[in-house]
From TrEMBL:
<dbReference type="InterPro" id="IPR052713">
    <property type="entry name" value="FeoA"/>
</dbReference>
<dbReference type="Pfam" id="PF04023">
    <property type="entry name" value="FeoA"/>
</dbReference>
<keyword id="KW-0408">Iron</keyword>
<dbReference type="GO" id="GO:0046914">
    <property type="term" value="F:transition metal ion binding"/>
</dbReference>
<dbReference type="InterPro" id="IPR007167">
    <property type="entry name" value="Fe-transptr_FeoA-like"/>
</dbReference>
<protein>
    <recommendedName>
        <fullName>Ferrous iron transporter FeoA-like domain-containing protein</fullName>
    </recommendedName>
</protein>
<feature type="domain" description="Ferrous iron transporter FeoA-like">
    <location>
        <begin position="1"/>
        <end position="77"/>
    </location>
</feature>
<feature type="region of interest" description="Disordered">
    <location>
        <begin position="83"/>
        <end position="102"/>
    </location>
</feature>
<dbReference type="InterPro" id="IPR008988">
    <property type="entry name" value="Transcriptional_repressor_C"/>
</dbReference>
<dbReference type="InterPro" id="IPR038157">
    <property type="entry name" value="FeoA_core_dom"/>
</dbReference>
Amino acid sequence: MRLSELSRRATAVVDHVEDREPADPISQRLRELGFVTGEEVRVVAVGPFGGDPLVVQVGFTRFALRRQEAARVCVRAESATQPAAAIASPETAPPVKVREAA
């Protein structure tokens, strides 16, 4: 399953980031931002009408990604063995300001 296919508030674990070409700069940047194997991700919000961008949380950090970028991140269902305290939630995450389109 791809990160771009997750619904709002869905949580998953990163399996890998797919390179679309040798030395793919976008995939490399996603890995640098924390989209690495075993890391938990959650879709916080989606754009209007289910479009771009997706607001995705990795740990306590949130990123706005285009669906085509999120499609490079392959995910699997969240592990049931992970303790609930390790999961970042909106209540424990720092506030994020999101600008709305005019």
